[in-house]
Write a structure and sequence with these properties.
This protein is α/β, with parallel strands linked by helices. Helix content is about 35%, strand content about 35%. The strands form three sheets. Strands 1, 4, 5, 6, 7, 8, 9, 10 and 11 form a nine-stranded mixed sheet that branches. A two-stranded antiparallel ribbon has the order 2-3. Helix 1 (about 10-20) packs antiparallel against helix 2 and helix 2 (about 25-45) crosses helix 3 (about 80-90). The model has no long low-confidence stretch (mean pLDDT about 95). Bound molecules: 1-O-pyrophosphono-5-O-phosphono-alpha-D-ribofuranose (PRP) and uracil (URA).
């Protein structure tokens, strides 16, 4: 499994504010969008393009446009914080949803919702979930996408833990992961350290 940690000063800057416990939900949403744009830009760098002639007001110029089907699948809830940024970059993407929730005691994910386009074999599928902790949620979502025929799956996240990366290496070796940061470890409650806390709660102002 390939792990890409996006190295960019603007990623560092956004992460510093996302991690800060004093950052409000309003600001957290803006930062989530900003960091997601940077991660998504990196993860779409190699999308195939075809040439298309375009008429400018002055002459015709050969341009290149994206030539593959793209599907974005945010994982509810926290993945919603990455969706607008992704659609800013790839407005033609289809969108599907997985609803996954970790049990607070066991940290084991449970799927409660699924609405994803079918026959994903010809698509580049971007799974959007900002936190890769144990890897259980991502592995469950990737397995679901594989069941719908997906061959090319890329997980975009904000913070990844080494435990989650190792878990995906075993359970989803063909997926690629793009992360803004690779953090140190999980705590006993399976939260990422140093991390940024509960992404969904901070994004939506819940506890
Ligand atoms: C968070 C996060 C991931 C999951 C990661 O979701 O958005 O989906 O935890 O943890 P894992 O790698 O150990 O599976 P959570 O279950 O807190 O749901 P929420 O987004 O609705 O808050
Ligand atoms: N989910 C989160 O939102 N944060 C963590 O640290 C781990 C899982």
């Amino acid at each position: 499994m390939k792990l890409h940690v996006v190295s960019h000063p603007l990623v560092e800057d956004a992460l510093a504010a996302l991690r800060d416990r004093r950052t409000s939900s309003t600001e957290f949403r803006r930062l989530s969008r900003r960091v997601s744009l940077l991660v998504a830009a990196e993860a779409t760098r190699d999308l195939p393009t075809v040439e298309r002639p375009v008429e400018t007001p002055l002459e015709t110029v050969p341009c290149r446009v994206v030539a593959t089907r793209v599907v974005a699948v945010p994982v509810l809830r926290a993945g919603l914080g990455m969706l607008d940024a992704f659609l800013d970059l790839v407005p033609s993407a289809q969108v599907g949803y997985f609803g996954l929730e970790r049990n607070e005691q066991t940290a084991v994910a449970r799927r409660y919702y699924e609405k994803v386009p079918k026959d994903l074999g010809d698509a580049v599928v971007y799974l959007l979930d900002p936190m890769l902790a144990t890897g259980g949620s991502a592995a469950m979502a990737i397995e679901g996408l594989r069941g719908l025929g997906a061959k090319c799956v890329r997980l975009l996240c904000v913070v990844a833990a080494p435990e989650g990366v190792r878990y995906l290496e075993q359970h989803a070796p063909d997926a690629e992961v793009y992360a803004a940061a690779l953090d140190r470890e999980l705590n006993p409650r399976k939260f990422i350290l140093p991390g940024l806390g509960d992404f969904g709660d901070r994004l939506f102002g819940t506890e």
